[in-house]
Amino acid sequence: MKLQLIRTLLFLFTYLFTTAVFAGKGNDALSLQKSDTIIIEFGNNSRIMFIIDDKADLETLKQYDLNAMLKDLSLKLEENSEDASVLSIEDASGTRYLKDTTIVIQSRDSQVTQNDEDEDRSNDSRRDRFDRFDRLSRDFDDDRRRRRFWPRTRQSFNVELGTNNYLEDGKFPDENNRQYAVRPYGSWYVGLNTTYKTNVAGPLFIEWGAGVDWYNFKFQEDDTRVVDTDSLVAFIQEPNQQLDPVKSKLTAAYITAKFVPMLDFSYDSRKSRLWNYHGSGFRIGVGGYAGLRISSHSKFVFKEDGDRKKDRERDNFFMNNLRYGLRVQMGFRGIDMFVNYDVSELFSEGKGPELNAFTLGFTL
Which of these, 11, 127, 211, 287, has the minimum number of CB atoms within 10 Å of its CB? Predict the structure, then answer.
């Protein structure tokens, strides 16, 4: 049964080979690796390789019976043990087969062995052919592995950590002693993202994806209260002097999508078809992002009569539902950092201070 299957496959792919050559049409089962070499891959682990020294010999093949060649090959498969890894059929006289043409069938990962059917043939010439077959076969396998493990687009999951702040008319609010000035330490940014990297051409890649981001703004003054009135949001000092303020902050969560073209200056097409974050050179990209607010809340922590307490209020605080901005990211070897700057204002127009948030962080 196994021998019959081999015969059928050999006949089928030899037919495809002759059809492709004489009709001038390509076929997915055929791959032209070199100018004088054609590989036919079939089954799970086998292939047929044609090594032709002169392209003009392709026309000569029309005069010979390839079916008879396959028949003789089948007889040799019957005569040899199943462990044989290389079989050769040759016709030095040229009356039945093309002179100096050798058909080689080899299973993947098997060892090449010499066939001593024709002791008059030059061993050096045969060794050269087998060496060339091994070299081209390895190149063929390397290309298949590269296509399998280095697709044009790859997906990954990453975590972004950073610190938040914002600008008012190009200045930090603490320069004007604003109540809503924040501390960089404690104003943490956390992002959980699914990221895709797509190779466009050469060193140009597109990084795109989506995730959930949390903006935390910890106010510099621990006694800051966020008050949401009917017409605006206000930042006031805690009026109850009996309380011992511990900390105060405003938090917002967004679903965010990003799109960043990247240049990797260490890109080498000979090594891979996909840019790697942890490459050996410098990489930089500039793009954009947009986010939809899904929640927001304020938290005021204080001590009263020695007991630690906290007030948490969930509201929109007139924060814009949509935020969008520019993103710059760069890296060298295993280190990557990014800067996000919100072009949109944090609060709705006329409902709060005119603040543009930004984030400086690292990608893990």
Answer: 127
